[in-house]
Design a protein that fits this description.
By secondary structure, the protein is mainly beta. It folds into two domains: 3-47, no CATH class; 54-143, Immunoglobulins (Immunoglobulin-like). The chain is built from one helix and 16 strands. It has one helix at 145-160, and strands spanning 3-7, 13-15, 24-26, 37-38, 45-47, 54-57, 62-65, 70-73, 75-77, 83-88, 91-92, 99-100, 106-109, 118-126, 129-132, 136-141. Strands 7, 10, 11, 14, 15 and 16 form a six-stranded mixed β-sheet that branches. A hairpin with a 5-residue loop joins strand 1 (3-7) and strand 2 (13-15). The protein is elongated, with a radius of gyration of 28 Å.
Amino acid sequence: MSRLARTSPSGSCLYGASTSTANWYVFQRSTSATPNELEISGSLTPVVVAAPPVITAPPSPTNVFVGKNAGFSVTATGSGTLNYQWRKGGVAIADGGAISGTQTNVLNFTPTVTNHTGNYSVIVTNLGGSVTSSAALLNVVPIPSLLLLHQFRCWTRLERG
């Protein structure tokens, strides 16, 4: 704990506390107080100090064939409500089309298309501050033409009998 000041006239100590364990208090030093002393009129008002968010599990890189579903998730801790904003290449993205969850801890692509390929990160915020995750690559791979050729040959053989 850190010492803030001594109160006047009794000389008892007023202590602050770690933001993770207790409240801080708002007070005003009286001009009539002597140095190292503090006169407080009325009661102290506790101020809630929010712990900033911490990312405990960042998004992981993902490879997926075009047309398949994919997604990223992040796990974070912190005081109060956590807010999320997913980004692609450092630019905020919005829900729409095949993309959903841009303001949640889970970002989904249903289904993927090749232009979804890129580096994705998320900013997590609360009253205590913000933190940005490391970027994770979503690699949307086109279906190899050899596989398509094989599927076509199987289909034509079945059709011919």
